[in-house]
Structure formats: structure tokens, C-alpha cells
Design a protein that fits this description.
CATH topology of one domain: Multidrug-efflux Transporter Regulator, Chain: A, Domain 2
Strand order of the largest sheet: 1-3-2
Largest sheet: 3 strands, antiparallel
Distance between the termini: 86 Å
Shape: elongated
Oligomer: single chain
CATH architecture of one domain: Orthogonal Bundle
Number of helices: 5
Radius of gyration: 25 Å
CATH class of one domain: Mainly Alpha
Length: about 140
């Protein structure tokens, strides 16, 4: 099979999704993508493009590759994807809770660091005043 308008080369996929060829091969090895193999060439279908869109979105949201793989396997071409949507929704709710907890921890750490910086500025100013006084 040679590349057609219906398939995309690895370079086209890399350019379209801003990923590396290594990333695409990794996703293929994890059974997330299933390009058509012709010798050493890989030809990606529109379905592969749709799957990669979902993989990258899932990764951005912090879903594990295993969760993403399972969700993709649940896809049903006849459109009855209630189970897939339900599972995605539950994973997303859990991930959102985790992200909000992380944000709260970060907000606390940022506030503490700002306080420490203010204290550091005061101490540095004291050192500078002491040095000026000693020099006079």
C-alpha cells in the first residue's frame, strides 16, 4: 500500500500534532495507535489521528496511558458509547479532584515562599544597614 489522501506519514503526524516519531512509535508499542505497516513505513489513518487527539488530551489532563488505552478500547463504532463516556467522566472527576488538591498545595507553598522572600529582604536590608553603619 502506498500513502494516499486517506493516510498520513509519520512526518505528517509529527508535524500536525507536534510530537516526535519516537512518541508515535511508543504509542504504537503501547497499543494506542495502529498504523498500517508497509516495510519500515507507517501509514496513519483518520482513525489514528482521532485516537492521537484523544491520547494527547488525556495526557494533558494527567490520565495514565493504561486508562487512555482502556477508554479507547471501549469505543463502539455504532455510537453506543455510554460505557466509554461514563468511565471517562469518572476518571476525569477523579483527576480534577487530584489537580485541585495539587493546586491548593501549590498555592500554600507559593504563599509560604512569598513570606520567606519578604523576610529575606528584611534581613538583607538589615545586613546592608549594618555594613553602612560599620563603614561610617
Amino acid at each position: 500500500m502506498t500513502q494516499t489522501a486517506e493516510t498520513f506519514s509519520i512526518r505528517q503526524m509529527c508535524d500536525a500534532f507536534d510530537v516526535t516519531a519516537r512518541t508515535l512509535r511508543f504509542y504504537e508499542s503501547k497499543e494506542l495507535l495502529f498504523p498500517i505497516r508497509e516495510g519500515t513505513s507507517r501509514h496513519f489513518t483518520k482513525q489514528d489521528r482521532a485516537r492521537l487527539t484523544l491520547i494527547l488530551r488525556g495526557k494533558r489532563f494527567g490520565f495514565s496511558l493504561e486508562d487512555i488505552r482502556q477508554l479507547l478500547e471501549m469505543y463502539n463504532r455504532d455510537g453506543s458509547n455510554e460505557a466509554q463516556l461514563t468511565r471517562t467522566y469518572l476518571i476525569a472527576q477523579d483527576r480534577l479532584s487530584q489537580m485541585q488538591a495539587q493546586r491548593a498545595e501549590l498555592d500554600e507553598a507559593i504563599a509560604d515562599l512569598k513570606t520567606q522572600l519578604v523576610e529575606g529582604e528584611k534581613r538583607l536590608a538589615q545586613f546592608a544597614r549594618s555594613a553602612r553603619t560599620a563603614a561610617e
